[in-house]
Every structure is written in structure tokens, then in C-alpha cells.
């Protein structure tokens, strides 16, 4: 099934002391490039965040207003592409693979979205495949997307989830890279 990818890479990395989390290197590959590799099957990929060096060609955009949070990032990213399915991933998912992304897309079924759970069982709304129209409608319902909660914004959607998996584990602290 055809899909577009929206990669969120605009956060401030405050728990990393301002170090650009997207450019952290794990096993010789930046976190951003790991996610871009996992989403390489997308028809179109847009990264929401400052332009950086990446291993493949992508489009770049910024949320409005800058630093407006992940829902503002989703709104900015949805302006790109036309595929009926959009895979949304944050740049801090170093263990996600192309097989995981394909599984999200093919398992969407009749749901509005299908996402990963991390190894603790936490649902990862920023590691999921969504029907473009459902995602756009949910974002439109909140009005100004600046500083809105992702969980509250997407609560109106019919979402399904994988079993807990390492692919859903994100990197929020330095210790997370050592796991």
C-alpha cells in the first residue's frame, strides 16, 4: 500500500542538554538516518525540523510557529504528499525498521491508525500509520495546533496497537541509548 512519511525532528532535546537528538549516532548511524532508512518505502518523506545532513533525499519543513510542539509538527508535515496513509515517526526511534513500518501500514485494516507499543506496553502515537483524512480531521478539530497534547488530539481516532516491541522504544535520555 502506498504511504507517505512524516518524520518529527523539531524538538529541543532538553533532556540531552541541547544536543541535537536527531544527529546522535548509534552504531555508526544517526538516529535521523535510522528512521529515514525505516521509512525509505514512502512515496514522499518530509522531515519536520531544521535541515540537517541525511543519507537520502527528503523534503524539509518547520512547524508554525517554530517550536510549536508535535501536533503543530504533524499539521506542517501533512501539507506534503498525497498518499492515503501517512506513517508518522519521531526521529528518536532507533530500533524501528522498514519491516516494522510495512507492518504498520499493512495492519491498518479498518482503523484510523495502527501504532507501535514500546517494550513497557506504552502506546506510541508518534510511531504509527494513519489514514491521512482521519489524522487531518483530528488535527483540524483542535484548532491552533500549537502546544496541544498528541494523546488528546488523537483520542478521537479509532487506533489499534501492536504487542510490545523494541521498535517502539524511543530515546528520551542518554541512558536509553545504552539499553
TrEMBL record:
InterPro entries per the UniProt record, alphabetical: MobA-like_NTP_Trfase, Nucleotide-diphossugar_trans
All residue ranges annotated as the MobA-like NTP transferase domain in the record: 5-154
Gene3D superfamilies assigned to the protein according to its UniProt record, in alphabetical order: Spore Coat Polysaccharide Biosynthesis Protein SpsA, Chain A
Gene Ontology MF, one: nucleotidyltransferase activity
Alphabetical keyword list: Transferase
SUPFAM superfamilies, per the entry: Nucleotide-diphospho-sugar transferases
Protein name as annotated: Molybdopterin-guanine dinucleotide biosynthesis protein A
Amino acid at each position: 500500500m502506498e504511504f507517505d512519511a512524516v518524520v518529527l525532528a523539531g524538538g529541543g532535546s532538553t533532556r540531552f542538554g541541547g544536543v541535537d537528538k536527531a544527529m546522535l549516532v548509534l552504531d555508526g548511524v544517526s538516529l535521523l538516518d535510522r528512521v529515514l532508512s525505516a521509512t525509505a518505502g514512502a512515496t514522499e518523506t518530509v522531515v519536520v525540523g531544521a535541515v540537517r545532513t541525511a543519507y537520502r533525499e527528503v523534503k524539509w519543513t518547520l512547524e508554525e510557529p517554530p517550536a510549536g510542539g508535535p501536533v503543530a509538527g504533524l499539521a506542517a508535515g501533512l501539507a506534503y504528499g498525497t498518499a492515503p496513509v501517512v506513517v508518522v515517526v519521531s526521529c528518536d526511534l532507533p530500533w524501528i525498521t522498514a519491516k516494522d513500518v510495512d507492518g504498520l501500514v499493512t495492519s491498518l485494516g479498518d482503523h484510523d491508525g495502527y501504532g507501535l507499543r514500546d517494550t513497557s506496553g506504552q502506546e506510541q502515537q508518534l510511531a504509527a500509520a494513519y489514514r491521512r483524512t482521519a489524522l487531518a480531521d483530528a488535527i483540524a478539530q483542535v484548532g491552533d495546533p500549537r502546544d496541544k497534547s498528541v494523546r488528546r488530539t488523537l483520542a478521537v481516532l479509532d487506533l489499534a496497537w501492536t504487542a510490545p516491541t523494541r521498535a517502539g522504544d524511543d530515546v528520551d535520555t542518554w541512558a536509553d541509548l545504552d539499553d
